[in-house]
Amino acid sequence: MKDLNFVLSLIVLFLFSPPLFCKTRNFELSYPELNVTPRASERLRLEAINERRKSMGVYRPIQISALMTMIAGISTLGNTKVDPDWDKNNPGKSNPNKIFPYVGIGVGLTWIAGTYLMGKSYYRPYQRRYGQIKNNTKLKGKSVLSKRLMLLKERMAEEAISDAASVGVRLVWMSIISNAVASGLMASAAEKDSVGQILSGLSVAISFAPLIFSNRWRKVYWNHQKYKKRIYAPVASGTILFDPVTKKTYPGVMVAWNF
Fold it and tell me: Are 33 and 39 in contact (CB under 8 A)?
């Protein structure tokens, strides 16, 4: 019986040892950056090619929110609450209810103009970082890269993708806060049940559009992270198990997930 257990153990180890049925001994498996498809550098290259054509789409939800804020501000002009005691109690001071519509118009115009300039001429995160990687002194002019240089290239590309997504997240929250606050101020300053108050309330809701409709930078980052997770798979290996009750050994298979 002992001989049979020994033979079975050898068979299990032979069939299920990682070097014999998979590439777990391949050193590249310890670097998810080199196993993900497409690699970060390839994704960065593709996005850099299409960036000029798709640049304005990144800012579309922010622009829609800003446009609604501006429209609400215009509609609130001349429809603000009147406080007859304000001038008497605050001589020489402007009634804030009359200022809030201009605040909304200013916030909306600022976001529309700023995102238009960024989309048309100023901010190209993928093109800029892809150019930096291509011109890196350690990578430039080399048709064949060592594993160390390949890892350097992929990690630089991943940083570029992550940085663009971080900028996108900051822009989204800045847009939400500024437009929601401006719209809320206009709603409080507008006359009750007026068109200005209704549009200002609607503008508060639309201020969250950039959070609901994700921009391209965040989608690229999330998709790349999803692809990286898919490369992790269970790794099986043969082993010999010991039963402390019967004091016997048995062949077995161990399955492990590495992250």
Answer: yes
